[in-house]
Amino acid sequence: MTRGLLAVIDMQRVFAEPGSPWAAPRYAEAAAGVRRLLPAHRDRTVFTRFVAPARPEGAWRAYYDRWPFALQPPDAALWELTEEFGGLAPRVLDAPTFGKWNPSLAALAEPEGRLVLAGVSTDCCVLSTALAAADAGIDVRVAADACAGADDDAHARALHIMDLYRPLVTVTTVDELLAEAQ
Questions:
Q1: For the chain, which ranges sit under pLDDT 70?
Q2: Angle at 95 between CA 48 and CA 58, to 5 degrees
């Protein structure tokens, strides 16, 4: 079975640090799952970063009116990958959108291949990426125990919604993905 491309979504300080308004309470648990997936995907891994646009447009203006702390340049500390992943990221793609399925990520995925998703936030950027990749015909696997949501309920609801898209999107576990990779 193909391992596919592992896309590690937004494992950044803004989602990890407890004092952040965007902290994912189970970030550390998701990070542990990501660490377990990395060896099986070696050179087939990409990390993404959510970054604020230089100038929000359209509905993003209202979004950043609600979250003005986030209007910082891409090199600001809050957008950094957490320390444990910064040195492990062979490739990093930045995007000012929730969904990370864009031409840059699509270019790394095999047209008939698999995309394994892990990261934060399950109920935002992971969900948005999964559905867009599935629409593009990619076999998407979401490692539920390598993701974290805004809270436990949002995480569970997002996993349930993504699992409704079977067989385009399959919610699975790190153990199941590692067993398939052998």
A1: 1-3
A2: 150
